[in-house]
User: What shape does this take?
Amino acid sequence: MVSLFGESPTDQRDFRMGLAGMLAGIHSLRILAERGIASPEDIRISQQGIVDVLAQIPTAEFSSEQRAGIEDMLDKIWSTAAIKFGQSK
Assistant: This one.
């Protein structure tokens, strides 16, 4: 089995592409929250999918500190949605 976090150029490419996709998704949620378009529940459901995927990655390959940083971003996005939802024009 090839680890997405291995050392080969292909492994590194896959890791970077996966990370870019995840961060793009997180930032899309942030934009929806900041514009008041998505409800806090919509945001939480989307975020749970991200958290569930991260939970499948062994801690040796994705540290608890990295995971906590992403979860902190997600919590801030949810808080923004809770404040801004319904305020869009």
The radius of gyration is 15 Å. The mean pLDDT is 87.
